[in-house]
Amino acid sequence: MTSQVDDLMKSGGMELDVVPVTGELNVGPQHPGSGHMRIFVKLNGDIIEDAEIDPGYVHRAVEKLSENRNYIHLIPLVERPAILDSVNMNLGYILAVEKILNVDVPERAQYLRSFAAEISRIASHLYGMGILAIFIGHSTGFMWGFGDREVWVQILEALTGARVTNSYVIPGGVRRDLTPTIVDMTKKAITYMRKKMKDWERIFLNNPNIKARLQDVGVMTREEAIEWGAAGPNLRGSGVYYDARKAEPYGAYSKLDFEIPVYKEGDSYARTLVRFEEIEQSLRILEQVIKDIPEGQILSDRFFKQIPPTRLKKWWEGQKRVVMPGYYASFRPPKGEAISRVEAGRGELVYYVVSDGSAKPYRLRMITPSYRSIYVMKNLLKGARYADLVSIYGSLDYFPPEADR
Amino acid sequence: MSQKPIEVVVKTLQEKKIPIKAEGDTRGSIEVDKTKLVETAKVLREVGFDHVKAVTGIDFPDQSKFQVIYHVSSFDLELSRVILALKTWTSYKDPVVPSLINVWGSVWTGERETYEMLGITFEGNPDMRRLFLPEDFEGVYPLRKSFKIRTEGLFVDKSS
């Protein structure tokens, strides 16, 4: 009797005893833990021996459709895959088109692009944290995430006129100008978010249950992260200092002062912390943009001159809105190719556009951060406990439509 | 004015006899025959390019061949500003390209998608299966130019 108790106490009564039962399990495509995706897991006891990721349930062939649309008609299409981060999706595509067209963008428009992109990033991170919270059974985190997100979505709505698919960035500039009301809203939102971040920290990040579910789960070393091609917060949670905003500044990022949070642990908790701290950095950027934004045009002169004077009077002088010049209808960029990268909410987003001189792109390649997470997830799931599948999935901030495109 | 990041890369690669062309301050392209693809990739890896951002296949029906492009970059602070395009060609008759999965693990998703969308086989990649398309998908490979999308007209006839 005593020896049995002694044996148990050595491991604190928590010894891992794998029952040698193997089995196969389909997670999804309608499982709450898989979104629109199927994960086919091979189990041994409750250890995942192998995981087969089967995306494609929300595939809509953006790359093929792009061969049949004019450049300007593609803007709403490319931002569909990640509607909750649409400004960044939009911006990346326009940067590639601008490289082919060789357009200069006015300073004010650059600041406005960064402004919209950062709001989008905050909203995207809150969405990601909310989804992670509900995956591991923390309903308050889910409701707070979606509730706080609403504040930022309303600013985007005031700025661009649309709630989710904003289509805000156009070649040569942006569509609408900042108004004093929006500046006021943003200032209030920043104060609100700062206050709310402390609550988040108390109820979510320092919560012992959350820590138990996330710490030391899905550990990815620095070398593994590089080898598997992780992107964004997943990469920075593994100790790689890389951010497309610093590597190749676009928008006004070269003039803005911000830091990149990096964690060495590489577990699910570190990835969550990176996202949490990026919100704080985004708030800093928004403050700087409001303070430093220069006066001037919001559309490149080359296109602005083509807007008819009557329309200019009605829309630009009245409501500070840009009316699409006729040039946009079916412009033919010169032959060439361009590759652009932006740091979207989930990580690095790459667009590769090949133009053959016609009004439609010859080939558009779109590499989204979630697409790169497929291989990362497949490798991370191997050897994990089955109960940790949702923690790993949620901490990668994987968004199925974005991966499928 | 410091040196442009691409110039350093061009200098190191030219010493190793790799035909590199600079395009702009931070972009470069290398065009090699597909038999030399793997050894070029290995040299790039040694220089410090540690991951592949995108694997793209482009169909050129008028020349009956495909172009395969690997966009290579690095997470190193200086090198991360450069993106190199490693280009190679393969014909319709023999749509096979050696896989780079042993050089960069991150090509896994890209090669698999290029296979299902264009029908280019990557020799040496153990996962040449469909990723996004349904299992019972029939017809030509969707990203080839011969695959036509059925389009609807802008104007729909009024029903009487």
TrEMBL record, chain B:
Q: Where is the NADH:ubiquinone oxidoreductase 30kDa subunit domain?
A: 30-151
Sorted keywords for this record are: Transport
Xref: SUPFAM superfamilies: Nqo5-like (SSF143243)
State any single GO MF term: oxidoreductase activity, acting on NAD(P)H
Which Gene3D superfamilies does UniProt cross-reference here? Answer: NADH:ubiquinone oxidoreductase, 30kDa subunit
Instruction: Report the leader peptide range.
Output: none
InterPro entries annotated for this entry? Answer: NADH_DH_suC, NADH_quin_OxRdtase_su_C/D-like, NADH_UbQ_OxRdtase_30kDa_su
Q: Taxonomically, which superkingdom? A: Archaea
Q: Which family does it belong to?
A: Belongs to the complex I 30 kDa subunit family.
Name of this chain's protein: NADH-quinone oxidoreductase subunit C
Q: Which organism is it from?
A: Metallosphaera hakonensis JCM 8857 = DSM 7519
